[in-house]
Every structure is written in C-alpha cells, then in structure tokens.
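Hello,

Our lab assistant flagged a job as stuck in the queue for most of the afternoon. It eventually completed. Since we weren't sure the result was trustworthy after the delay, we are filing this so someone can double-check. Below is the sequence as submitted and the structure that was eventually returned. Let us know if re-running is recommended.
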Amino acid sequence: MIFDTHAHYDDDWFDEDREALLRGLSSRGVGTVVNVGASMRGSRESVALAAEWPFVYAAVGVHPDHAPQMTEADIDELRTLAANEKVVAIGEIGFDYGHEDELTEEERTEQRKAQEHWFRRQLELAAELSLPVIIHSRGAEGDTLAVMKEYADKVKGGIIHCFSGSPETAEAYRKLGFHIGVGGVITFKNARRLPDVVAAAPLSQIVLETDAPYMAPVPYRGKRNDSGYLPQVVAKIAEIKGVSEEEVVRITEENARQLFSLPGSDR
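-- returned structure --
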C-alpha cells in the first residue's frame, strides 16, 4: 500500500474531520503515514497522533522558519520525544531562504546563521540517536548539500523533502545515501526540473509524500491535500518511468520501510 513519508495531520486545517479522514485512508490505498513535526508543538502533536493511530508514525524536529527561536531546552525535549518507539526520524529540519525579501542584509545574515546553527544541532541529535533525517531546503540547494555532505556518514540516511533541485543534485544525494521526496508538484504543468529528476533517478531513491495539507496534486491543486490523493502522484511517476503503478507503490513503500527501519521491507 501507499506510504506517505511526509504529512502534517496535526495542522488546524484538519480539526473538523481529522478522525474521519484518517480512518478512511486505508480504503483509499494508503497503508502508512509519517506525521512530521515542524515546530515544538507540532512535534508533540505528531507523537500524540502516532500513539493514537497504529498506521501513523512520527518525525520530530523544528522547521527552519521556527529554528531561530530554538533553545537547548528544545533539543533536550526533542531527544525525549524521539525516545518514543513510534518516532522514526528527526525532521523537518534544514534551510529556508524563501522569505528574505523583506529583510535587511544584516537580518538575512543573522537569520541564516541561526538556521544553520539549529540545523546542525538537530543533525547532531539524529546522529546521536541513530535516526534518519527529513530535510527541508528552499532556495538553499548549495548550502543544504554542503551541510549534508558533512553529516552523511553520521546520520542514518534520510529524505530531501519536496525535492526541487537538479538531476545532478539528486544524483549527489543518492551517492550520499539520501532519498528524494516526490509529491503533488510532479503533476503540475509548470513543474520544471522535477520530471527530469524523476526520469533520471532510480526508483530505489524515490519516496512518496504529500506535505498535507499543502501542495495537492492536479486535479485537486489549490484544495486541501491529504494522503488519499497520492495515486495521482503514483500515476505520474509510473508514466515518467515507464513502469506500472503497482511497481511504483511497491518500491517506494519498500524504500520508506527500509529507511525508517519498519517491518515489511523485502530488503
């Protein structure tokens, strides 16, 4: 069944129908979901969701937008949260340079320094705990790759979430042992490099993700996203790769189960 490696069902957008939606995912072909923390609150809520739903697992971490407000006490709390048996990764963590237009040069420099500091601290935590990482990178392709080259031998693999780099960068990540996350963007008419990336990358490097409630695939673009829309992503990947949809589901699920050390991998 489909394995969604990146969703945010703790988001307020699901408050009215979260239980019904999650209960119905299996009938829509979805077997496993990793709910990913983007803040301290989101990390706590991800662990709570994983405790409530057998097919849901959690990642804990702080998104770069929130990282400048982190403290060492937060690292300690993430360590405690990660001790839960259903926590399978540290994330989402990384760099985000997408909101810098309104900043002065000094503010931009300070923000990037803070993002890098707490990115590295969370990578160090992942290495300490032998957990994979889920990496957020927006407008920071070179900086992200440079940092991950430093930590590739220390962390237990991971996913470059919502991959937007070049085929060459995807290949560099493959050599470092990282997967690329492919979601609704692959169905967009204005998707630029991602179809070329998927064409060039082996299926063994690809995992499925939604980023729900964001980035719903065509024909649901602009609506609230959820894991039940992933068949649209599967179909597009199968078309690009010239393989069956069943093969895409099978291999991407095996990739995710192996990465997160979950039962059911054939490898």
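-- support follow-up --
The delay was a queue issue, not a problem with the job. The result is valid. The chain is about 40% helix and 15% strand. The first strand starts at residue 2 and ends at 7.
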